[in-house]
Amino acid sequence: MYPLPIVIALAQLFDAAIRYLAFSKKVSEKTTRKVFLYSSLWCVASVFVYGIFFAKFSVDASTYKFVLMTGWLPYFIICAKMIPWGLPQHIFVLGMGVICSLVQHTVGAFFVLNFVGRPEAELIFFEAAIYLALFAIFLPVCGYFFVKLLPSREFFNLKPQGIYIALLPLIVSSAHLIRLADDVFVHSWAERLSRFYLPIAFFFFYRYILNAAKNFYEMQRLERTEARLEEQLTALKDYHALTEASRKKISVMRHDLRHNYNIIYTLLEAGDVAKALEHVRNRKEGLK
Question: Model-level pTM?
């Protein structure tokens, strides 16, 4: 019974690692180590939790789907607590991870069809193992996509637009998640094929998000540039006013000095030294 919990726990750990790549370029090495440590500890603990759960309720489609649809929560909490970027960003990354996971599970289902007729528990183990193998195959593509996934934090801080954008991946994938929340392990061809339409449809949504983010950044940049120009213009006006006021004061001082020098010169020329000294004394007192 334990090989299945181990495979599921590893798959969920790797899914969490892919989602973490969206934040990896923007957090410190210390944070990375803490996220890896706590996620690894939960991965080990989840092996025993899932083993006990399957031993008590057996391995079937409903228990397997329950584990898949709830196992993401501890990793989500760890990442959200360790990286306080804001809930909208984490929800957006989670939704994108759900879409990626749905596609891989759908691809894996085509391989599982080759084993139809065997006991359901064996089919479930094959599906989980194939998903893990597909993860290794798609890792370079998923890693590249998730590293470049997030727009700027400012984009998600917009209210309420940021919340709508953050919820969009989950909203798009919710129809398939509701359909999958049953006790049927192998769904019809139409349902499986419809899951391939999901990433194609969301690709256009995501392109719209990136274009909107680009326009938002450009608008913000222009607003900041305009604000800086206005500040510089105001500073130049203030500097010009201050310079003009200083020039006028210097002109008045030069006029007063010239006038005083003329008075002293006239008094000295007339030989009236006492009045000249008195005038200088008066000017000196005035300066105090």
Answer: 0.69
